[in-house]
Specification:
The complex is a heterodimer of chains A (63) and B (402). By secondary structure, chain A is an alpha+beta fold. In chain A, 22% of the residues lie in helices and 22% in strands. In chain A, the strands form 2 sheets. In chain A, strands 1-4 form a two-stranded antiparallel ribbon. Chain A has a two-stranded antiparallel ribbon with strand order 2-3. In chain B, the strands form 5 sheets. Chain B has a 7-stranded mixed β-sheet with strand order 2-1-3-4-12-9-5, sandwiched between helices. Chain B has a 3-stranded antiparallel β-sheet with strand order 6-16-13. Chain B has a two-stranded antiparallel sheet with strand order 7-8. In chain B, 47% of the residues are buried. The model of chain B is unreliable at 9-15 (pLDDT under 50).
Chain lengths: 63, 402
């Protein structure tokens, strides 16, 4: 599973890197960076948690 | 924030809802639910504009900053002489300022301050934790965020009372001066004092810098190759003062009042403190201490079938959005195990609350230290908490300890 971030939409709420710190991390301004662009199967659930808690809908899965 | 907001949930029914009454502030949840059902885009009798309550509508309005503008400094009458930066300006200007401000309030930066915040919380709690009763607002909810703020800014702790006077004169002017004209002049006069206070502070800090303080950072940071002008510095710090104190005070009061009235929920957090970060999010959703956020329309638009004209005040009712059952499964229940919680307590879009990471950390530390120092507390028998509308500060929160 691959992740896609829309940095024009991310506003630095930080929910993703708070809830899924193995998949997302923060840059110096508090905006999202991906640790894994391709999410290993054992982190899929965590990735989904981060994605589904983004208030801006800035994170998506791509097949 | 300073004006009353009454809305007519359904123009065909007699009688409306007064969202700005103390009763509504004490328990707004039922009113929000009524509005969702009867009139999700309501007419405001106070500002003449509209009140938007559906989650999807509120989120889309936050995200569309070209249509829903934040440039409304004069409408608000908060004692400012120029728009506050970056809250009351729109992109692209707003974006330039956020680029230099975001890093000062990032989660990473806030984590560095955690030990100081924890000590400040514990120090305040120790002053009353062994008493039988406490008025929690005055004893903790008011001073804690103010002390944190002073440390963060690099300002002396002795200025605490002065700061509290400043923000109350602006945000609670009508409680101090019930006459609207007098209240306006109080805000204007206080605004001048706030500018003068920070002007002097910047002079002082230019001479003798306080290491790692936000004010010193602002003195040295460059924006497009130039240092910030004194007016820019003052317009940023005015906002910090108004936005950074009352909102956290209100959140602490709302959270502690909820836990005082729901002993089982409190005990769950005492038994398992690892639930606290999630509890912070859920209480932000349920309580939404900042009930609504204002915008002004740049052109005519249609929201949930209601036409809103150009240049109209709009209240984005975050509290109502956060209870919308289209977005939140079992939204009427406070659940520490909620998996998906995209609440809008900190707003959204380009103006997402700059201090949200600071607020979250203060709230988490507050709950952890509170439940450690005084795990048992309830409302004092025969007394009731008193909420103020708009920003839901629990102005009187009488607790029985133990």
């Amino acid at each position: 599973m691959k992740l896609k971030i829309d940095l024009d939409i991310c506003q630095g709420h930080g929910r993703c890197y708070d809830l899924a710190p193995k998949v997302f991390r923060e840059d110096d301004r508090g905006y999202v960076e991906l640790i894994h662009e391709t999410v290993p199967p054992e982190l899929e659930e965590e990735a989904r948690k981060g994605k589904d808690n983004c208030p801006e809908l800035a994170i998506d899965f791509v097949n | 924030m300073t004006e009353t907001e009454s809305v007519e949930p359904n123009p065909t029914e007699s009688g409306g809802v007064d969202l700005m009454s103390p009763e509504a502030a004490a328990a707004p949840q039922d009113i929000y639910r009524r509005m969702h059902k009867q009139c999700p885009v309501a007419h405001s009798l106070s500002h003449g504009g509209h009140v938007i309550t559906r989650y999807e509508d509120v989120l889309q309005s936050f995200r569309d900053h070209k249509l829903f503008s934040s440039e409304m400094a004069l409408h608000m009458g908060l004692g400012t002489e120029r728009p506050m930066i970056p809250q009351q300006i729109d992109p692209p200007e707003q974006t330039r300022y956020r680029k230099i401000l975001d890093n000062q309030f990032s989660r990473k930066r806030m984590k560095v301050l955690e030990p100081i915040m924890r000590e400040q919380a514990a120090e305040l709690l120790r002053t009353f934790a062994d008493q039988e009763t406490v008025e929690f607002n005055k004893a903790f909810a008011v001073p804690f965020p103010c002390r944190v703020f002073l440390s963060l800014m690099g300002l002396p702790q002795e200025d605490l009372d002065l700061f509290l006077e400043f923000k109350d004169n602006i945000l609670r002017s009508q409680q101090i001066e019930p006459d609207a004209t007098k209240a306006y002049y109080l805000r204007a006069a206080t605004g001048k004092r706030i500018y003068a206070y920070f002007d002097k502070a910047f002079d002082r800090l230019s001479e003798a810098p306080e290491e790692d303080s936000i004010l010193c950072y602002l003195l040295t940071v460059e924006l497009d190759g130039k240092k910030l002008t004194r007016n820019e510095l003052l317009d940023i710090t005015f906002l910090f003062l108004l936005a950074g104190l009352d909102t956290v005070t209100a959140s602490i009061g709302c959270f502690v009042s909820f836990l005082a009235q729901n002993p089982n929920r409190r005990q769950e957090l005492v038994d398992d403190p690892s639930l606290i970060p999630n509890a912070v999010e859920e209480l932000l959703r349920w309580e939404t201490p900042v009930m609504s956020v204002p915008r002004v329309t740049k052109r005519e638009c249609e929201i949930s079938g209601v036409t809103i004209p150009e240049n109209t005040m709009v209240s984005l009712q975050c509290g109502a959005a956060n209870l919308d059952d289209e977005e939140f499964v079992d939204g009427d229940t406070v659940r520490w195990d909620r998996k998906f919680n995209r609440h809008l307590a900190f707003g959204g879009g380009v103006h997402r609350c700059l201090g949200s990471h600071l607020a979250r950390m203060e709230l988490q530390i507050m709950l952890e230290e509170l439940l450690k120092h005084m795990p048992q507390f309830s409302l004092e028998p025969g007394k009731k908490p008193v909420y103020s509308p708009g920003i839901r500060e629990v102005q009187v929160l009488p607790l029985k300890i133990g």
